[in-house]
Specification:
Two copies of one chain form a homodimer.
Chain A (H helix, E strand, L loop, with lengths): L1 H44 L4 H35 L7 H18 L11 E2 L9 E6 L2 E11 L1 H9 L1 H5 L5 H17 L3 H6 L1 H33 L8 H10 L6 H10 L3 H27 L12 H35 L6 H21 L4 H19 L2 H32 L7 H29 L6 H9 L5 H8 L5 H23 L1 H7 L8 H10 L12 H19 L6 H4 L5 H7 L2 H8 L11 H10 L20 H8 L1 H6 L13 H8 L1
Antiparallel strand pairs in A: 2-3
Helix pairs in contact in A: 1-2, 2-3, 2-15, 3-15, 6-14, 6-15, 6-18, 8-9, 8-11, 8-16, 9-11, 11-12, 12-13, 12-14, 13-14, 13-15, 16-17, 16-19, 18-19
Chain lengths: 685, 685
């Protein structure tokens, strides 16, 4: 026994040693990679040819990117160790930030930079700046592209430290490359059934709540800023619109850390759906809100007064951009669904996956090209793809697309968080004002509270399945800030106000991710929130004991009911192979259109025609995937109602899924797939 | 019967109609997307604020990228139709080129461009160009980054057509973003067993053959250019180094079209391996060769004379860069293998896949940062990953990584080919010289012949399994040019010579992809090359009839034998969980090191210890994956030898795989997985 233990211990020690060797190897490679271009620069100094310099610049870029790649690698290895040891206090994003911080400190205080590569400010005779500049330098022409405008006080800093400036990415990278996959993945992985069941509450939190939060924070910060001005603590302009902008960008919650723990511990699915749905949608609201606030530009000299017209214009812009992005996203999702429905692309999984990826990407580009917000479009595209297109894909492509976006999301998220850590030390225009920071933390807290508690109170009036107070506290606690807040803050750091916001936001993100994220498990047990809830198991329990089924019609009943009927009768049959044939649901005048749009499967199912080469898909499985297993939650406190017999059609559908629906004879889809047990059981009965 | 047929026909017509609707919808979206920014520009004209212009530029970029995304979408849909109808004359890459051509024509002749966005050449007082430029424009500072040098005759063109210039990507995009996944995928999907079996021949074709081809083409083109100069057909300088450069870049073959058909028709695996291996490796050779030729810079005034020192320097550079890139690629592959071996990362597939992806990407960045060639490093990294790391991955990650790189390869490849089509009309400095073009086609033909036929003759002296003349003709025919040639030509189009090369190369690619690619099936039947060869089936046939096994030791025997022994005894045990424990293969003096490096599995296997929580992997499966099913080819002509009894150890290993090996008792690995039928069968026997 003792011998076995010592073997175990020594084996474990051996493995840990190996890991350390590997990790230090990685660090060594990273350091040597980071230092090698610096050595190379000495030899390059002699040669002042442009090509050499461009090559040098390319090498430098590669080395910079390499630092991040190796940071991510380190994060992965460490997070594996944490997961392996079931250590839940630090999520991978929090860890990525820590590593980023460390590398930031090294870059700032350890690495020495040669001073020869400073850019030289030149005085060109130009009336206005152009996106492209052709410069005639001693007879040769060079093409330069505009990167950004630099504030005059920044010019000296720029010249100060080339190295730090080099590891600073173009802020648009976050918006155009890193955020889209994250947001798309969020939309694509929304737990649909719970999302739709709690749709009313989620929309309330996301829209009303975010606007409340934005204005509360904006007003509080305006008070704080006014006080600072009186005390002489303010070193530059800070207008009310700036305060509102701050409110908007800091209202985007990103509880990725909390959700990961929820997922792992199987916390109540409704709480999960509420938090996730809110965080996904409020990102979209915050983006559009902040751009509308920036667009608020009253005419005349004093550009920071109140003006009704400008306000209306901003409001119109908010509505226009939001609805435009929404429509675009949904439209491309629908096009993809139609393409995958009416072609047999599913026979070629690579083509199918590629098409899915390209169509989803094109949503972003289309929205950006039309002047809408790509990130918002991508979100709604993701939701549409998950709700319709996903059902048309072959099982292999379903896996492929899920895994692809999961990977992209993972990489992009950790990249952003490690960059966040890095930028705390490498960003050269930080303005840390203690009073502003304290004010911001307070305002963020109050803003979150003003979002959650009053809205929950109102929502509970209408909800049957109340949002209990411990759930409310948890939602309050889970108001972490993350990638979206960061990306919105770093986008524009030209003015004093923006720089102070950026620095403060960084601290808000660090604090919430580390403290709130790290304390999630403690908070869960402190609030006595049930863990280990298996949604399927819960479902079967309620089936076994029929009287326990709880009516779900009261909660968000009208919204959900309208949506469900429309979706089931029209959208599903049009966009997927499932649902009743349109010929039975559409009015007779639309006959030809209905026949054109209805899937051949629906006809075949209806006419009981079996064709040899019919590309029969799992019509039955498709339905059950989406609605067949809608769970009926039981209250953790034990409160139960027994209105099992008073249920209406909709409720019965929710409880039994579409199998039941088919049996009642009102719908004509008869699934052909005999291998599906629940249906054949029904037939035999 | 007639009724059924008419239903069939009408159904088919309906489907085709739907497809047309969908495709035209896509086209409509693409056109409207492309035209919308143009409309927007009118309103933007009034506002000369930089931010607006930058936003405009971003929108334009989105629209440009959108064009390509939609092109790829169209390509996918069309290629699906082709595959669906088993139409093999046009591969997706050929189709992508056609669509690119069409869009190029539209952009060039149909779309009107507003003329206000021309870049203005400015005369700045600078001594030398810098990578970053700070420009002081009426009090505000703007940061510009160097894009490229423009030749003086190009300056006017640049001003001519902003629209066409806009859809022109930075040529470095191809090298730094699009080529790496293609090349990595090629390495990662090398059919390893056949690749290693034909290693000698492949290396000969790739190294010797490419150098021969480069010099033959270079010499022929020098003759052609000299003739043109005499006839007064030459409008600029064209030196011998330019000719050699042309020879190098046009020597990179890319028979992706042919290989796709080979794969589909199951053409002889050896021919496949020869062609694929050659094309993969000669890309690497061509890249390094061309950069070495560019680096040939004799000192003194006349920079295009022969100088021994400069030649030696170039040669040294070739060897240095190639071996450096090779080592780096292999090194990161080995690091990844070690990390995946010594951690239990396989429990978390997402982390595992992410790590794999990041490590592979870091190879590229590391090589570029060190001044080596990233593309070459990535190729050898891919081969190493496939040979070692792949065996350490969990089955799910094996699928994920394969599918991920398959998708990236597909997208990048089709993007490049559609860009190729586009650029024929949108590139503004084409120089089409009929004489040069005819000369180039001839030279490419002769160069390919001088590569294949003499080398095959020499190789056949040493090979037992001769490369028959019809295989040689097929290899000659399959010398398509593709992505690599294009990427190398577009990288630098500053001089007259380079522009003429670029235009000519485009035509070479078009011709070979369409004509040679499209005629592959005809050529196969014309040359009477057997199709429908199933490597596994072939294998079992030779097993059933033991006397038919053909010795493979003669072909590349010494090279393969050395490699195989080293790999099996040392590399596999160090880098994967399979193979004999190092304690038995390494000399006793290396005892501690051997114990440290040997996988716990190997110990456990050796000691017959079964642990409850041992992370037992499919040791057996791993081996069989790599060596267990090495096929023994039968000659298509029916020529057979029966030296089955005279086979030596190595040959027996090849025939039976490692299962046999284990049974002979000389090795100590006893696979633990009882579910593997071949091994258990052996035991029962």
């Amino acid at each position: 026994m003792l011998a076995k233990m010592s073997v175990d211990v020594s084996l474990r020690a051996l493995r840990t040693l190996r890991l350390l060797v590997l990790v230090s190897l990685c660090v060594f490679i990273s350091v040597s990679a980071a230092s090698s271009p610096a050595q190379e620069e000495d030899s390059a100094m002699e040669n002042i040819v442009t090509e050499k310099k461009a090559e040098e610049s390319h090498r430098q870029d590669s080395a910079d990117l390499l630092i991040f790649i190796l940071l991510l690698t380190l994060t992965i290895l460490t997070i594996w160790l944490f997961k392996h040891r079931r250590f839940r206090f630090l999520h991978e994003t929090g860890l990525a930030m820590i590593y980023g911080l460390i590398v930031g400190v090294i870059l700032r205080y350890v690495v020495q930079v040669p001073q020869d590569t400073k850019p030289v400010p030149t005085s060109c005779l130009l009336n206005a700046s152009t996106p492209t500049l052709l410069v005639n330098i001693s007879g040769k022409f060079y093409e330069y592209t505009l990167k950004r405008e630099i504030s005059s006080n920044e010019v000296n800093d720029v010249k100060d430290n080339e190295m730090l400036r080099k590891v600073t990415f173009d802020p648009e990278v976050f918006f155009n490359i890193l955020l889209p996959p994250i947001i798309f993945h969020a939309g694509y992985s929304l737990k649909r059934r719970h999302f739709f069941r709690n749709m009313g509450s989620i929309l309330a939190y996301a829209f009303v709540g975010t606007v409340i939060s934005c204005f509360i924070i904006g007003l509080l910060m305006y008070g704080c800023v006014t006080l600072m001005k009186h005390l002489g603590q303010l070193g530059g302009d800070f207008f009310f619109t700036d305060c509102l902008f701050f409110g908007a960008i800091v209202s985007a919650t990103d509880p990725v850390t909390v959700l990961a723990i929820f997922h792992e511990l199987h916390v109540d699915v409704d709480l999960y759906a509420l938090l996730f749905g809110e965080s996904v949608l409020n990102d979209a609201v915050a983006v559009v809100l902040s751009s509308s606030i920036v667009a608020y530009q009253p005419q005349g000299d004093n550009s920071h007064t109140f003006e009704a017209m400008a306000l209306l214009k901003s409001l119109g812009m908010f509505l226009g951009v939001f609805s435009g992005s929404f429509s675009l996203g949904v439209a491309t999702g629908i096009v993809t669904a139609l393409v995958t429905k009416f072609t047999k692309l599913r026979d070629f999984q690579l083509l199918e996956t590629a098409l899915f990826f390209l169509m989803s990407w094109s949503t972003f580009l289309l929205a950006e090209a039309c002047g809408f917000t790509g990130v918002v479009a991508v979100l709604f595209c993701g939701i549409t793809q998950a709700h319709y297109t996903f059902n048309n894909l072959s099982p292999e492509s379903q896996d492929r697309t899920k895994q692809l976006f999961e990977l992209l999301n993972f990489l992009a998220e950790n990249f952003i968080f490690s960059y966040m850590g890095l930028t705390l030390f490498t960003f050269q225009n930080h303005i840390f004002n203690p009073m502003f920071i304290v004010g911001a933390f307070l305002a963020v807290f109050v803003g979150r509270a003003a979002n959650i508690y009053p809205l929950s109170l109102l929502l509970n009036l209408g909800r049957f399945n109340k949002i209990r107070s411990n759930f409310q506290h948890m939602m309050m606690f889970a108001g972490l800030r993350g990638a979206m807040t960061f990306a919105l803050s770093i986008r524009d750091t030209a003015t004093y106000a923006r720089q102070m916001m950026f620095s403060t936001n960084l601290l808000v993100v660090f604090f919430t991710v580390w403290v709130c994220g790290g304390g999630t498990t403690q908070m869960l047990s402190c609030l006595r929130i049930r863990v280990g809830v298996d949604s399927d198991q819960e479902n079967s329990v309620s089936f076994a004991d029929g009287s326990e089924r709880r009516s779900t019609k009261q909660e968000s009943a009208w919204l959900f009911r309208i949506w469900y009927n429309f979706d089931h009768n029209y959208l599903k049959p049009i966009l997927t192979h499932s649902g009743p044939p349109l010929t039975t649901t559409l009015p007779p005048c639309c006959g030809p259109l209905a026949r054109f749009l209805t899937s051949p499967q629906a006809y075949e199912n209806e006419c009981q025609l079996k064709d040899d080469d019919s590309d029969l898909i799992l019509t039955d499985g498709d339905i059950s995937l989406t609605y067949g297993d809608i769970t009926v939650s039981t209250d953790a406190t034990g409160a139960r109602t027994s209105d099992g017999l008073a249920t209406d059609d909709l409720d019965r559908e929710l409880a039994y899924g579409d199998h039941e629906l088919v049996m009642r004879g009102t719908r004509l889809v008869l699934p052909m797939d005999d291998s599906e047990p629940p249906f054949t059981d029904h037939l035999r009965m």
